Amino acid sequence: IMRVLELYSGIGGMHYALKESEVCHQVVAAVDINTTANDVYRHNFPSTALLNKTIEGITLEEFNQLSFDVILMSPPCQPFTRIGLQRDVADSRTRSFLHVVDLLPRLSKAPVFILLENVKGFEKSAAREYLLRTLRECGYAVQEMLVSPTHFGIPNSRLRYYLLAKLSGQKPFSIFVWTLMVSRTPHRLACNISDDSTEDPTPAPPSSSSSSPSPFPPQVCAPEYKTCPSLLKATLEAQKKKNQNHNLSVKQIQDFLEPQENLNLDQHFLPPKILLRYAQLLDIVRPTCRRSICFTKGYGKYVEGTGSVLQCCMDTSVEHVFPRLDQCSEEERVQKLLELKLRYFTPREVANLMGFPPTFSFPESVSTKQQYRLLGNSLNVVVVAKLLQLLLS
Ligand SMILES: C[S@@+](CC[C@H](N)C(=O)[O-])C[C@H]1O[C@@H](n2cnc3c(N)ncnc32)[C@H](O)[C@@H]1O
């Protein structure tokens, strides 16, 4: 039985992934400072020891007493996000992580396995450099990768950096993983994915013929795109979304929705004020789509880039409503937009897309906004479960 230490435990995404992986385990302690997240964790895992304290406050002796074989951790990602300041190790939020790395060589019993999850961007950080150097010095074999749920047939983008480490003497990492996981090294990974991409890369096919066709669809060579790069970008985005919806290896959104009769829909529709102001920025999907964008902690509060919204009325279409919208009066605009019946995904639906099992629930005291916030900070359980199987078995 593996003794697991779950650091930055949040709402317990790692714990659910462990359960899903079917590896025989015991979580010896979970640690987090967010009291709301801890309420949710305790609600779902009442018998796990949950430490409500800062990780940098845990001493070497305390760590030694826990006597764990595995560390699972998803440290705060704000210091590394592509849209943030990228203050990296200079950001005070990285302190606790550096504390963990510092303690690693000094533990009386080195953990056999480590899994770290973070945002895309971490692969270029000094924090990663420091972790890698320490792991090498301690004799770990390491594999890193960028993986999204879409690679496992789930219609939700959440491209994340993962590091798997095992102490030398363990079974080597299986090569199979790397063909599946886009690429072998973060360097190549970083090259495969353009920096501003918000969506997932498609795993690069093995380079076969040298006469590869142009990566752009032919119509983008049209002259109007030369004078208007933003139009080109929008067209490429639209094309990409269309392609994603045709990828039959990915499930449809409707497989993750709550039964409509259970929902108080009025509560979830986007209000006219938001529609008027942000219509052009919405990422709209239908139940039959095979894609959605990453749900972040601002979902339900901010609109742009925080997660997709669902079109509930199929009698009209986005293509029908949007093109002439700016020629309409405000009143007509609202009318047209309301016809689409756009609603937010419910927290339960977001949890479904993130692979949380039906047994997962929130205590009643946690508001909808807080639920979105906590889910946005969490991880995809199905993805991490697969990685744990690869790491631990
Ligand atoms: C990216 S989230 C991880 C979420 C978690 N994996 C889940 O499934 O919900 C980072 C978590 O680390 C916690 N955290 C941040 N700094 C911390 C620190 N210094 N000590 C303990 N917990 C911390 C935050 O409260 C947050 O819940």
From TrEMBL:
Its EC number is 2.1.1.204. The active site is at C77. One of its GO terms (molecular function) is methyltransferase activity. The keyword Methyltransferase applies. SUPFAM superfamilies: S-adenosyl-L-methionine-dependent methyltransferases (SSF53335). It comes from the Eukaryota. GO terms for biological process: methylation. It is an enzyme of class 2 (transferase). The keyword Methyltransferase applies. Keywords: Methyltransferase, S-adenosyl-L-methionine, Transferase. GO terms for cellular component: nucleus. Residues 191-218 are annotated as: Disordered. InterPro entries: C5-MTase, C5_MeTfrase, C5_meth_CS, SAM-dependent_MTases_sf. Belongs to the class I-like SAM-binding methyltransferase superfamily. C5-methyltransferase family. This is tRNA (cytosine(38)-C(5))-methyltransferase. It comes from Tetraodon nigroviridis.
